[in-house]
Amino acid sequence: MPCAEALSVPIYIHPTQSPQPVIEAWYQGFDPMVKNMLAGAFWGWHIETAVHVLRLIPGGAFDRYPELQVVIGHLGETLPFMFQRFDRILPPDRTKLARSVSAYLRENVHYIFSGFNYTPVFLNLLLQVGADRILFSVDHPYALMAEGRAFLDKLPVSKADLERIAHGNAEQLLGL
């Protein structure tokens, strides 16, 4: 993490298969196909990624490396729906952190589409973090570029926000 911060490059946290003991504990007893989907792209990948991001916060990673930036997919891996709850249950006086949990999620995390072309989910993320934290992506080969582009073109945002989301935020974050 100190290298990423020193180089001003983000860390991308991508979903992956949970460890087998986690899969067995949470998803045992289902049909094997259902078990694999629950543990993977249907649910588990997103929750596991969210847990990893959350662990960085109370672990103090962003207090030690305040300029560190993280990128996560799927319009926030469920995290944006929980901002207010995080702050109510784990306020800074309880965590001994410099900021609220949602402040770290707003100031140290960027969010990409990753094939989540769902307007209500996008609007929730937009309301939580603003247009400057959202980057267009498609999730190829699991999602089609044409579908992603069609969704991007129909976003209910201003032209300036659309340009930021489509390319401007990525250019700034990646120094392009």
Classify the secondary structure makeup into a structural class.
alpha/beta
Q: How many independent structural domains?
A: 1
CATH uppermost class: Alpha Beta
The CATH architecture designation is Alpha-Beta Barrel
Largest sheet: 4 strands, parallel
Question: How much beta, percentage-wise?
Answer: 5-15%
Radius of gyration: 17 Å
Overall average pLDDT: 95
Write the CATH homologous superfamily.
Metal-dependent hydrolases
- Enumerate how many helices there are, as a single number: 11
Q: Please state how the strands of the largest beta sheet are arranged side by side.
A: 1-2-3-4
What is the CATH topology assignment? TIM Barrel
In words, what does this structure look like?
The chain is an alpha/beta fold and 176 residues long. The protein has a single domain, classed as Metal-dependent hydrolases (TIM Barrel, Alpha-Beta Barrel), CATH 3.20.20. Helix content is 53%, strand content 7%. It is built from 11 helices and 4 strands; from the N terminus they run αβααααβαααβαβαα. It has a 4-stranded parallel β-sheet. Strand 3, helix 9 and strand 4 form a beta-alpha-beta unit. The radius of gyration is 17 Å and the shape is globular. The model has no long low-confidence stretch (mean pLDDT 95).
